[in-house]
Amino acid sequence: MITSWGKVQGVPRTGMKRPLLKVFMINKIIFFLASPLDKRDTDRFGLEILKQNGFDFEVWDFTAILNPERSKFYTPPDQSSFNECRFFSQKEEALAAIKKLPAGIFVSCMLGHEYKSYAFFRALSKYRIPYGLYSYNYPSFNVQKKSTIRRILNITPVKLASYLFNAAPAKYIGIGPASIVLAVGGEFFVPKFSVCAETKILWAHISDYEIYLRVMQQSIPQDDKMVVFLDQCFPFHPDAIGNPLFAAEEYYPRLCRFFDHLEAACGVHIVVAAHPRSQYEGKENLYGHRTIVRGQTAELVRKSRFVIMHDSASINYAVLFKKPILFITTDLLQQARMGLTDYMASLFDKKVLNIDQSYEIDFNDGLIMNEKCYEEYFNKYIKKSGTDDTPAWQIFADYLKKQDKIGWK
Question: Which domains does the chain have, with CATH numbers?
Answer without folding.
Answer: 2-206+385-402 (3.40.50), 211-370 (3.40.50)
